[in-house]
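Researcher: Next sequence.
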Amino acid sequence: MIVNPTTFSWDGATQRVDDTDYLATDRKGYDLAIKPTGAADDQFVVIMGVISTDQHYVAPLADLANPIEKGAWTAGVREVDVYDIRSDWAEADFVMEVAPKPPTNFIIA
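Model: Next structure:
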């Protein structure tokens, strides 16, 4: 399992569920979301909505308005087509750990 990831990245779909071509011109973008690991899909909270039409996309966590809190999470990304039809979620688990700050006033005498 990935701990403290710095980016999410993915390759967009090239086919629809009926195996017909899904072209770049069909893509409106992607929804990127997170939920606590083990939660149902309806618990996903979109953290970046309808972003980019690029086939390959990298989303740096540093671009998020709010940092992801400590804990075990599942990230999901889904396609959004030009008609606002959304794919199922592609999912991956990760953990955010927050390390303590180092000690202060460290002196060698």
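Model: The beta strands are 2-3, 7-11, 27-36, 45-51, 56-60, 71-81, 90-96. The first strand starts at residue 2 and ends at 3.
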